[in-house]
Amino acid sequence: MSSICFQNFKFASPATMLKLRFCGSMMRCLSRCAQKKYEPISISKSLRENSPEAYAIMREAVIKLERQSARFTNVLLSPKEQAANEVIMREKNAEYNKGYLEPGNGNTDEPPYLVLNKIKETPLYSLLQKMPKGGLLHAHDTAICSSAYLVELTYRKHLWICTKNEGADAIAFRFSKEKPTMKATEECSWEPMEEFRERRGEANVIKYLLRRFSMYPVSSYATNNAAWQDFMSIFMLLDGLLLFAPVWRDYYYNALTELHADGVQYLELRSVMPNLYCINGEQLDIMDTMEIYKSETERFKANNPDFIDAKLIYAPLRIVEPKVCEDYIKNCIAFKKNYSTFLAGFDLVGQEELGRPLIDFVEQLLKLPEDINFYFHAGETNWYGTSIDENLVDAVLLGTKRIGHGYAIIKHPLVMNMLKQLDIAVEVCPVSNQVLQLGQDYHNHPAAMLIANGVPIVISSDDPSFWWASPLTHDFYYAFLGIAPFHADLRFLKQMAMNSIRYNAMAEEEKKKAFEKWQKQWDKWIDDVAK
Amino acid sequence: MSSICFQNFKFASPATMLKLRFCGSMMRCLSRCAQKKYEPISISKSLRENSPEAYAIMREAVIKLERQSARFTNVLLSPKEQAANEVIMREKNAEYNKGYLEPGNGNTDEPPYLVLNKIKETPLYSLLQKMPKGGLLHAHDTAICSSAYLVELTYRKHLWICTKNEGADAIAFRFSKEKPTMKATEECSWEPMEEFRERRGEANVIKYLLRRFSMYPVSSYATNNAAWQDFMSIFMLLDGLLLFAPVWRDYYYNALTELHADGVQYLELRSVMPNLYCINGEQLDIMDTMEIYKSETERFKANNPDFIDAKLIYAPLRIVEPKVCEDYIKNCIAFKKNYSTFLAGFDLVGQEELGRPLIDFVEQLLKLPEDINFYFHAGETNWYGTSIDENLVDAVLLGTKRIGHGYAIIKHPLVMNMLKQLDIAVEVCPVSNQVLQLGQDYHNHPAAMLIANGVPIVISSDDPSFWWASPLTHDFYYAFLGIAPFHADLRFLKQMAMNSIRYNAMAEEEKKKAFEKWQKQWDKWIDDVAK
């Protein structure tokens, strides 16, 4: 039937029709539809002479074909999962009816955190929070824990704060028994944290720090560059607080705790691997930093048997001379030697616009041994046709296993096709992209095109600490309601969770076990939701 | 060489490598590069064992291949055009350096018209305004002329205004010798325009009307729906002013004059084809409306020999019961009978979210004779997976010759591929999409993906009157600087101009002549710029 259809089918002219490559498969699909559900209806020679019934068949075939290219539509649901799906879709539609996902709403002056807080109150959010989401594959070392936890840390003994403008602006922290002698990034004066707290009033200090540890108010950023400037200033402020070895250890353990409570069972953490310091000012080796990560991971796993694991991506700053990258490579080889399975791979971090493009480091990067994988940030921009979005080409040609952000990927159809063919997943971070001014309206987020084209993605949160988002649930909420198609359902959520294991850095044997642990939690959750 | 390369080339694993369909063509391209420019360098078995030189060749091949898929990169420039291109690129880079195209800038509170005014002052804008841009293929009957011209019209004899809130809100206009008896859309009181002007002060009235005839301030729109509500209210207010037959005639002639001065030589106008009225209240037949269009077009052509032509797309409202579409079809057949070549085709207009989707009208639409083409609005939304963006499927399956807006097309890869294969152009209206809240940042405009994928587009302005934009130049400016790749140059501009003739509704013989007329102006412009 398909070839007959093909002959009789006419769009514009026979010449253009012959070019219609998709037609063969459309007609096969059409013919299947016709055999299964309908009486065969012949397609007219002219479109206008079609009967409305024939048109309806043709249309259904196209819509079906289209939807199939979004991979999640092929996920199968058990009867119990179907029951759970009904609950979820009911809540999803309730959310749509509230209207704050209406197109254009992202453009209002309402700060994202107020929306994030509203979202937290919804039944759908509760469902998503409890959902076993698998792994978080894109998150940065000092930007995971809640701001409330950061404030708690400022109550620790021997903490000093360096402020300017009579205490109005916090510039640095430092743990020390004596007044610190180190220079901060700006001129400022040191005082013990207790004194600062007393002088300014505890409530004021808490309020100030909560704000200062975040990027709010976001509305003051005119551009992506302005947002990045503030973003980096938080990282720098936090250094003195978090690089204190005992705090570093506790911060990481707490990050795992918060993630776990948010339905995350696995973490691949990007760390710049800084030198930590002790109370006497002594600097530790970066191998000690690694050891803290490793031992805290083991401790957490021992205390939480359903937690799968964590691994580390060594991700130093890209805003360096290429020769510095040689040191990075040496460090990475040393990490691999001592922490062979704990080290997931290598990346470079920092704003792509200001840092160097990957092409500048190719000579060094090619020297990394083949058993260390790349997990490159690339294309975290909405520019098109610059050295920044062309990082995407280098990431793929260097053999990256995943792409961090890849916001600009949709302007690179060849690279997008390579991702599909090579099964490279894009780490999509919806809230991060909004706060960092890449796009305001989730409906325009490029991940929708990745979904439509069947490019593998995982949902990640990047730096949730800095915008008061939950460790991963808010990003799932926006991916589900704002980015995925209107009809996306539990199949989409299930695929996102499974992708986070499929595309992680584990060896095949590890993955198998990880899937089992996830499945156990998943089945339990489905049971709960279906009830 | 290519097959040897293929064998020795390894990305991730041999299995995934075999799937790498693009590799054949990449390797052929690579081999060509190598033969032409470089000493042949063998590609290593492992990516990491590549030399930086081999990597550079491979990378260049991929970047070249990528850029080729954007059609404009294949446009050839004469030596004179190359000289003009240097001037244009110098001015383009100067614009980038001013920073208001920096990503994220669209998110600020600065109203678009202030930016539009700034743009008008730039040398690049002057160049683009004088550039022969070919045809404007997407514009609506009562939304082309400048607001200043609309204010001028309010000085005509026998005009009445209906206001509420003691004259603070204009609800309707009407030309009449006596006080109008007709009901306006809201309760209001009629008074002669002269009296109103005197009572409120002329300067105030001018200021008020300029604002009221536009969508500013745009910042008050929370959503796309809110923007549409105000948008439609301007159309309704203008009805009484413009549907007066003598004014209708002059408005259209003035639209052609403004377009012509903005470097436009051809127009395909979408009109709802309203019944016009005379000073005694008599209603004219819609065939009279058509006749005014036709005779004014001829008059304008006679007065401006370098102007190519205008055609009309009959485009009544989609927010009707399907049976009303039967009347539309009858009207359209009558238009075709009397104005065979002047009628370009048929469309349905109005907000897709509120109006009916095309699928509801299929039975009626299929009855339109085959010699009347469709030019459907479809997918003017950023929703994904709803009846609104699925209008795109119906537009193509009904055999549309172009797509109006198609903002959601990138979420429909199959339809996007069909556009490419069937050579259907998308009418891209950048400023309209911003004002109507589909997206704030031009860097995220979906047309970038259409360009990257080689889907044909034309640049249009939709309703420039309502946002104080120039008839077409502002949209070209944003398409060139905000949407097209950083490296887009005169080749892009030339292709956009040529596309507007290639994808218009003319017969082949007409097109040939149109190209000649355009080429003449183009060569003159190139001469001027190159000097």
Automatic annotation (TrEMBL), chains A, B:
Keyword Glycoprotein in the entry? The reply is no
GO cellular component terms, alphabetically, are:
extracellular space
Q: Which reaction does it catalyse?
A: adenosine + H2O + H(+) = inosine + NH4(+)
EC top class, in one word? hydrolase
Which Pfam families does the UniProt entry name for this protein? A_deaminase (PF00962), A_deaminase_N (PF08451)
Q: Which is one GO molecular function term here?
A: adenosine deaminase activity
- Family matches, as SUPFAM superfamilies: Metallo-dependent hydrolases (SSF51556)
- Check the record and name the InterPro entries matching this protein: A_deaminase_dom (IPR001365), A_deaminase_N (IPR013659), ADGF (IPR006331), Ado/ade_deaminase (IPR006330), Metal_Hydrolase (IPR032466)
- The residues covered by the Adenosine deaminase domain are 221-517
Annotated compartments: Secreted
Q: Keywords, A to Z? A: Hydrolase, Metal-binding, Secreted, Signal
Ranges for domain Adenosine/AMP deaminase N-terminal: 45-128
Record keyword Secreted present: yes
The biological processes this protein is annotated with in GO are:
adenosine catabolic process; inosine biosynthetic process
Instruction: State the CDD domains in the record.
Output: ADGF (cd01321)
Cofactor requirements of the protein: Zn(2+)
Q: What protein family is recorded?
A: Belongs to the metallo-dependent hydrolases superfamily. Adenosine and AMP deaminases family. ADGF subfamily.
This protein is called Adenosine deaminase
Taxonomic lineage of this organism? Eukaryota, Metazoa, Ecdysozoa, Arthropoda, Hexapoda
Provide the gene name from the record. LOC117572312
